[in-house]
Amino acid sequence: MPIYLAAESELKVGQELVLEAPAEEGSFAVVFEDDGDTGYFYALDTAAGDNPINDALHIYNVADVSDRDKPSVVKIGWSIDHCKAVLLINDYPHAVFDFDAKQGYCRSGFPPQVGKGWSEAGHQWDEAALTLFA
């Protein structure tokens, strides 16, 4: 998967963490957040003005993570064209944003749809999303 690493941090599930990863070029950015109860991955367009958030993907509920007492490593990578981002936890892909197609994919498939214009087909995981980085 040819990507460049934009952000990396130790993650202790359930301990607050905000990990920002802007693309090296352009106005796109993604953010992973663990707010103590849930983990979410956000797609942003910083050129959008008042509300830069385009989409949001549910990654986990803290209470449902069986090994939350073990530290993990969260990484965010970008495609070479700076238009696709992947969220990896312990090197396992949990979510992908495709800014070109305005589509987000996550293993939980939640939420079904956030708003008009992005992920109108929902957020269901599709292994083919990983081929975006080939």
Describe this structure in words.
The protein is mostly beta strands and 134 residues long. It is 0% helix and 48% strand. The protein is built from no helices and nine strands. The protein has strands spanning 3-11, 17-22, 28-34, 38-45, 53-61, 72-79, 84-89, 92-98, 103-106. The chain has a five-stranded antiparallel beta sheet with strand order 1-6-7-8-9, with no helix packed on it.
Instruction: Give the helix/strand class.
Output: mainly beta
Spatial separation of the terminal alpha carbons: 6 Å
| 3D shape | globular
Order of helices and strands: EEEEEEEEE
How many domains is the backbone divided into? 1
Low-confidence stretches: none
Describe the largest sheet. Answer: 5 strands, antiparallel
Q: Order of strands across the widest beta sheet?
A: 1-6-7-8-9
| Tally of DSSP β-strands | 9
Q: How much helical structure, as a percent, in the residues?
A: under 10%
Question: Mean pLDDT, rounded to whole units?
Answer: 94
Question: Helical stretch count?
Answer: 0
Q: Could you tell me the strand content as a percent range? A: over 45%
Instruction: Using the CA coordinates, give the radius of gyration.
Output: 14 Å
